[in-house]
Amino acid sequence: MLPVPLKRIAKCKGNHLQPSSLLKPSLSSPSEDHSLAQLSQLLKLHLKPTFSPKDLLSFLKKKLYHHPTLNCFDLYVFHWASGHEWFTHDHSTYEWTVKNLARTDRFVDIPQILDCMLAHPCPCSQGIFSCPHVETIFTFAINTFCKLHRLDEAMVLFSNMRKAIDGRPSVVVYNMLLSCMAKCRRHESAIEFYASMLQDKVKPDIFTFNILVSSYCRNSQFDSAIKLFKEMRTKGCVPNVVTFNTLIQGLFRDRKMKEGIGIAYEMVELGCGFTVVSLEILLGGLCREGMVMDACEILHEFSSKKGVLPQGYDCFCIVNALCLQKNVEKGMEIVGDLWSKGHAPSAVVCITLLEELRKLGKLDVACTLMERMFNEGILPDIITFNCLLQCLCDVGRASDANRLKILGSRKGMKVDASTLHILVRGFSHEGRGREGLLILDEMLDKGFISDLAVYNRLQDGINKNMLLKQTMSFDDVLISLEASPSASR
């Protein structure tokens, strides 16, 4: 049910809301009248005369909030309670009402509640000092409007908060507004607001600088971003990984690759460890600009320094770029170097290398890589696995394919019907019927063959191929004997 307009809350008789106290419009639905009658009964039942803010909060949270039809009347109950001369809301009822309005997307009513809080202060306010919870309630409201990118309304709330609280606002509130300005592409407003923040003698923190650096980079003002980056240290704020990532990404976006690389080296010198995201920004950006070998050199240099490379980095961007350039040998070298230093590649990196090795016909290297993957507990997907087995069988290496299948099964690889079909055909084409029949029996045991009739047909085909291969081998022997000099004599 949609809330009834606020003008329908009017005078209250006694201590409880009565249906007669509602100013009903000329057209009112029966369902609304029924809901208001229910609300009146609920108030009579749970809120006794001279109820306290604690009683009202308990009613709002435990009775009204979970009611299936009356939960939309929370704001009306709030104003109804305000109509009693002896009742004053405290910070708990203000805070719950503001949060519930935000939770139910009734943002337009939030400023009204905050104005009410300023006009009727919390009872815990002492003399000229305001309630310590006022800033918390305003901060929540400001953050709500900032998330909605409703900057103007957030700024109005900020202005009201500054007048209401004792002392200066927290740097957290300034950061919320700065972030909203940056996201709304109001860069000049953010710079002016930062200047006013310094005038208010609010000390900026790392989040403040990161927001401003990001805003400068979005507006291609890299000189100002670098200047602010240096200013951080003079204000006693140490740049973190987010600061460096923002600068590198911004410089790369503007094709300033040399400056971005310089920031990365400065990051290492300051002892700020890379994250996986940092390396993806740095090395991935270089690869996208065609500077793949430069990325390889930087990765090798960083991997030689202890503690620089983070755990979990798999160098996929570099390996993928090298494979696109058909330089799979360099990719294998990089992966092997990182692997030997404890940075095991991901399954995706290994699969990328396997596919390129298979396409280039380097099956020996592919088999070696596959064996190492199995021994390290890295399992490929079944399609990549089957494609490699098919290539081995196509060149008469069914035994190698079967050896990989056995090793993979021991390490947890689940073969499918296609895997065993490939091996059966491979052994059959090589005339090795005994091995083919063993694989055929395995297919039957695993339920990959529907019935015995199909099994018998496959078995007959293997036997025929074996006999044909033996006949061809015997004919080859006769031909070779006839062609020899001793046979001619």
Distance between the termini: 111 Å
Strand content: under 5%
Structural class: mainly alpha
The best one-word shape is flat
Order of helices and strands: HHHHHHHHHHHHHHHHHHHHHHHHH
Count, helices: 25
- Round the mean pLDDT to the nearest integer and report it: 84
Rg measurement, Å? 38 Å
What can be said about the biggest beta sheet? Answer: none
Low-pLDDT runs of 5+ residues are 1-27, 470-489
Helical fraction: 55-70%
Number of strands: 0
Describe this structure in words.
The chain has 489 residues and is mainly α. Helices cover 67% and strands 0% of the residues. It has 25 helices and no strands. Helix 6 runs parallel beside helix 8 and helix 10 (206-218) runs parallel beside helix 12. The radius of gyration is 38 Å and the shape is flat. Mean pLDDT is 84; it is low at 1-27 and 470-489.
What does the secondary structure layout of this molecule look like, with pairings?
Layout: H1 30-46, H2 53-64, H3 74-82, H4 91-103, H5 110-119, H6 134-147, H7 151-164, H8 171-183, H9 187-199, H10 206-218, H11 222-234, H12 241-253, H13 257-269, H14 276-288, H15 292-303, H16 316-324, H17 328-340, H18 347-359, H19 363-375, H20 382-394, H21 398-410, H22 417-429, H23 433-445, H24 452-483, H25 485-488
Helix pairs in contact: 4-5, 4-6, 5-6, 6-7, 6-8, 7-8, 8-9, 8-10, 10-11, 10-12, 11-12, 12-13, 12-14, 14-15, 16-17, 16-18, 18-19, 18-20, 19-21, 20-21, 20-22, 21-22, 22-23, 22-24, 23-24
